[in-house]
Design a protein that fits this description.
Layout (H helix, E strand, L loop, with lengths): L8 H22 L4 E6 L5 E6 L3 E4 L2 E4 H4 L5 H32 L6 H30 L10 E2 L1 H22 L2
Antiparallel strand pairs: 1-2, 1-5, 2-3, 3-4
GO cellular component, one term: plasma membrane
Subcellular location: Membrane
Keywords: Membrane, Transmembrane, Transmembrane helix
Length: 178
């Protein structure tokens, strides 16, 4: 059984990319490993340290960032805010793509405007991810000299960045589908 007349494989690929990208970004946003590494504590035991956008973990124990530091920098706040804005743009793009499929099933007229908005939302998601990761990398990682403390960029930041790229590509692919 094939796809309905107004569906194309390219639309499906775009939607799948939007979903995968959004999932990756949300996982990156929620996990506390934007910077991570190991340190030796006062007893000589190696402890894993992870910094996220909202949590700081020392080994298995995690605390809210506000519990760890009372002076959270503006760059850290900006990184968190733009990561959330990127998620919202990704949700909008995926939601509108699903809405497009529903309208196609209901035989409603197809509009280029809807596809254009999906593409713009995908590009906006990528732009917000770039700003978020730049704020964290330049304003947080460098300011706190995390590299000198033996901390590396963590998987959460990378997941968020790759997710933003996938959202953008999904939005553009969806728009370019005929």
């Amino acid at each position: 059984m094939g796809l309905p007349v107004r569906f194309s494989v390219v639309h499906c690929v775009g939607t799948v990319l939007l979903g995968i990208g959004l999932t990756m970004h949300i996982v990156g946003l929620a996990t506390p490993s934007w910077a991570s590494g190991t340190r030796t504590d006062s007893r000589g035991v190696s402890v894993t340290i992870m910094f996220g956008l909202w949590k700081v973990c020392f080994g298995p124990e995690c605390k809210d960032l506000s519990d760890y530091s009372t002076n959270i920098t503006d760059a850290w706040k900006a990184a968190s805010a733009f990561a959330i804005l990127s998620m919202v743009a990704g949700i909008a793009a995926l939601g509108l793509a699903c809405y497009h499929f529903i309208m196609s099933v209901l035989a409603k007229p197809e509009t280029k405007t809807l596809k254009f908005i999906i593409m713009v939302a995908g590009i906006l998601a990528l732009l917000c991810v770039v700003i978020s990761t730049s704020c964290f990398g330049g304003g947080v990682y460098q300011k706190y000299e995390m590299d000198k403390d033996g901390l590396d960029i963590g998987y959460s930041l990378i997941l968020s960045a790759v997710g933003g790229i996938a959202i953008c590509i999904g939005g553009v692919v969806f728009f370019l589908a005929s």
